[in-house]
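Morning run. Coffee first, then this:
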Amino acid sequence: MSRIWLDVFLGNIGRYIVDFIINYYYFIIPPIIAYGIFLTISSYNLKRIEKSVNYEIVRQARIIRAKYPEINYTELVGRIRIDWDKMMDLKSFFPYISQESDLWVSKTTRENIRDIIMHNDAKIRLVLERNDIHLIGERPGVRKNLYTEFIHRVTRKD
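And here it is:
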C-alpha cells in the first residue's frame, strides 16, 4: 500500500530517491551530521564576536555620551570606532562564521564580520536602547524585538 502512495504523491523518480535514501542512509547521515556540527560551531563563533562588538559599542557610546551629552544618533554612531582585527583575534576560535539560520559559511575576515554585524542600523539602535543609552530628543519607549519586526515587515503588518 505504501508503494502506491509513493507512486501517487512522488512519482517514479521520487520513489527511486526514497528507495536510495532507505538503502544507503548510513552513507548519507554522517556527512549531514558533520556539516551540522560545523555550522553550529561557525554560528557560535559569530555570536561570540557579535557579543564582544556589542559590548564595545555600548562602552564607547557611554564614553562619548559623557563627553558630549547633546550628541545626536548619527554623530554618535559616526564616532564609534571598532577595532575589527582585535575583536577577531580575541574572540574568534574558528576560521569560519555563519549566521544562525543560514546554510552557508563565510571565512572569518574583517570585511565579512563587519558586513554581517553592522549591516542593520536598527540593530545598533536596539543595542544602545537595551543598554539604556537614549539620545536627546528621543523618548524611550517599549523595547523593540527585531525578530517580530522582521516578521511584520515580511507579512506587511503594522
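Residues 46-155 form one domain. Good start to the day.
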